[in-house]
Amino acid sequence: GDPNRAEELLTFVEETYRNGSTHLCPNGVFYSAILQSYAKQATTEGVTKAENLLKRNSELYEQGKWYAKPNTVMYNAVIDAIARGAGDDAGDKAEALLGQMETMYASGNDDLKPSRRTYNAVILAYCGRSGGSIKAERMLEKMEQFASMHEEVYPDRVTFNAVIGAIVGDPDAEVPADRAQAILDTMKSKSVRPDGRTYSQVIEAWLKCNDDKGRALAEQALGNFMEAIESQKQSGPWLYEEEVWKVVDEYKLLGEDSAARSHQQTQIGSMSSGDEYSFF
């Protein structure tokens, strides 16, 4: 929502509660909503506001204001704000907050147990940043280690897609296509189903190699994508399938007489026929 409106609401609720109202009591859900409004700004100003509110709440809780106690959802909102609006140090700032959560959780504060979303947001904070690919891969390893004791935190499709995004979006990444392909292979080995975004990033990474090997491996990845669609067609259209065809068109990967091209045209026709094209 509107961050200015959110601040007005924050002031109103807190002042009403301090004045003795028993009907309006700020809590973790309330503060998380305010923090998310800052995150949606996707600006450095939004980051600063989110960080300041979290710091203020921590201080209030230490002063005995139980309603201000920070929790996982609040920390996630701040990490999300950082991922969206911070600069080149976004990943490091996000990981520092994760470190705080891990320390406090280890000391017995169950309200700050890192979640899958926490780790995913930290990885996203490394996307598009120089050197972010290695740190994102290390964060994946750290997440898997934590998940070995907390199954609900196990990496999902969003996690792996974010790591691939960090690899292909890192201007200083070495052999990004090989590393992106390795993450895709890991997903399959762990029975995490890739989607169109997974394949589109890997295909484009191979095509950016701008050599015969890269093009051949891009075509192979596209073939694997088509086989996966065919074998799982009963599940319905693939999420982000259109992103694959966008890459295919941009790099002119297919000939007009190919089976994959025919499939693409069929999908485009179905999307423009007036029927809703919904993804699961």
Automatic annotation (TrEMBL):
InterPro entries: PPR/CCM1_RNA-binding, PPR_rpt, TPR-like_helical_dom_sf. The keyword Repeat applies. Pfam families: PPR_3. Keywords: Repeat. This is Pentacotripeptide-repeat region of PRORP domain-containing protein.
